């Protein structure tokens, strides 16, 4: 039986891989948010994009996710009212979704 002393140290300190993909959830109702939270909890995406035409609902769900980010190791979460904003995403210059306004 191998002991801890017999195992090389590099096997104990595996570097975590950060996902580099982007997942878009269309619709932030009960099902869409269940998917979004599951994606965040399982750390499946580097970027999670939320899309919904009802901007007030989208803003409320984004605020909930920002509050949850204190307790979860979250990916970058972006939002917008149409799918076009996803094409404008640029890692260096992204501040927030063009259609998501903080009041």
From TrEMBL:
Keywords: Cytoplasm
Highest rank taxon of the organism: Eukaryota
Pfam families given in the database record: Ldh_1_N (PF00056)
Primary localisation category: cytoplasm
Claim: Kinase is one of the keywords in the record: no
Annotated localization: Cytoplasm
Domain (Lactate/malate dehydrogenase N-terminal) ranges: 22-81
UniProt cross-references to InterPro entries, sorted A to Z: L-lactate/malate_DH (IPR001557), Lactate/malate_DH_N (IPR001236), NAD(P)-bd_dom_sf (IPR036291)
Gene Ontology terms: cellular component: cytoplasm
One GO term of the biological process aspect: lactate metabolic process
GO molecular function: L-lactate dehydrogenase (NAD+) activity
SUPFAM superfamilies registered for this protein in UniProt: NAD(P)-binding Rossmann-fold domains
Protein name stated in the entry: L-lactate dehydrogenase A chain
Native source species: Piliocolobus tephrosceles (Ugandan red Colobus)
């Amino acid at each position: 039986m191998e002991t801890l002393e017999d195992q090389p140290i590099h096997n104990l300190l595996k570097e975590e891989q950060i996902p580099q993909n982007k997942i878009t959830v269309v619709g932030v109702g009960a099902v869409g948010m269940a998917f979004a939270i599951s994606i965040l909890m399982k750390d499946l995406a580097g970027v999670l994009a939320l899309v919904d035409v009802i901007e007030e609902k989208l803003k409320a769900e984004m605020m909930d996710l920002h509050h949850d980010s204190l307790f979860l190791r979250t990916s970058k979460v972006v939002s917008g009212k149409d799918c076009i904003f996803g094409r404008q995403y640029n890692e260096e210059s992204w501040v927030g979704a063009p259609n998501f306004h903080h009041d």
